[in-house]
Give the backbone structure.
Amino acid sequence: MSRRVMLVEDEPNITEAIRFLLIRDGWEVETHADGTDAVEVISSAKPDLVILDVMLPGKSGMEILTELRARDDLQGLPVLMLTARGQSRDRDLAEKAGVSRFMTKPFSNSEVLTAVRDLHAQATQT
Amino acid sequence: MVRDTLTGSRIRERRMIAGLRQADLARQVGISASYLNLIEHNRRRIGGKLLVDIATELGVEPSMLTEGAEAALIATLKEAAADAGAVAAEVDRAEEFAGRFPGWAEVLAQEHRRAGGLERTVETLSDRLTHDPHLAASLHEVLSTAAAIRSTASILAETGELEPEWRDRFHRNINQDAERLAESSKALVTYLDESDSSEERRGVPLEEAEAFIAAQGHHFPALEAGGAVGDQKLSGLSSSAAQTIAREMLGIYLADARAMPLADFMAAVERHGIDPLTLSREFHVDMPAVFRRLASLPQGALPQDVGLVVCDASGSILFRKSIPGFALPRYGESCPLWPLFTALNRPLVPIRRRVSQLGRTAGEFDCLAVSWPQEMPGFDRDPVYRSIMLILPVPTAQTGGEDAQPVGSSCRVCPRDACGARREPSILSQGF
């Protein structure tokens, strides 16, 4: 059974690196670089997990997360949030909005892989 | 324990500082050592000649023994205890502590004040990071590029067999990102260097544009003479955002100058005085335009200085022309009692209030404020308002005759405890 990740990130080289890593780890990866319609794209793709950048064109990752959590069909979707802003206030905001895991840039590949595997495992156990 | 019962403790402290034995001091002032012991433990009241004699022997003023440490010191100690939060300090014994250990109390108070100063610095820097879009964007750029390089480099280093096309692609990506990182880091360092070295607080585009306007004395003779905004030299502004804001400000200035030519406007002021309503009717302009025009006249054109402040509907200050005696903070800290904000609740209704801003240089000011829709809203759209306030100092001879409404600059430095609009405790004591 395939495991599918939606990566919402506007930095093409980060997207390429994470996509490569996840494909090597057996994931099916879809990418999207714009915040404006990210919620609709995620809703339509129905991935097992979302990796979401905070600063996106059109709509911020925080707004997208809030909208995802407001929808019945996406409430439980694991979301790993990536941000260059590691301030505790941002972390608090993300946690209040319902983030599953919060990771600051620059991150290591192993951190990303571990987080994605853990979140997926937790989601499938529940 | 109340303050006037602590005279004995202070005598004991001062005696020990002077290096005198209890018996020696008692003999010098003609009492028994056991009686002095009772006094020093606050079990006997003391006053009159005996107090004066003891003070003389200890080389201090009698009031030093009766009044003890300064009230400000005690207030600072109580503030330090309150700020300590979970640590349970004996607040009710602050006076006793200050009386018995004045040196330690002063050290503690100094450290508390120093911590307060450092907190303010951190707040300012944090505030700047939050509100300075250029700095935030630069840091985001640097960290995102670093993340891309780290991730790509790890793939190259840790992936055993990598297909040649993937390897080449990642090499190219690293090369691109390394160049990007070098450029963005250099730009960031230049930006921070400029911010640190400038006398003005540069970096925040709004402030930079405001400083540019202030440096010209809020008056632009070339625009008065019909010049174009585009001819103004904005090259001194470091960011394109600041240049854009300055151009917008100058565009408004130019429109006001055309609607109210300088010579005509000065003649009208000569006839009517600083009467915004009459001036707006005469020139067929709205009140905010008259306020702006009054604040942009050449230095000395009016018999008094005028201040000006503009905010948007969120209360964020968009423009300030400062005036002595009326502090105008920037970031979301302004006193909500200012008529500027009252006007936001009553759009298009001119408001005049005489206010007194508390502080060392407290004076009275007539504040004229009005809010207006930023643009004509479309159907079924809510208007977005801005508010403007003209600040006119009241001559000293005319102060005190009318009930001036007390206002502050911001809660943190406002000493008025009994204020329903207070957002946070003050760092000052009442009567500062």
Summary: Chain B has five domains: 3-115, 134-197, 204-259, 261-303, 305-432.
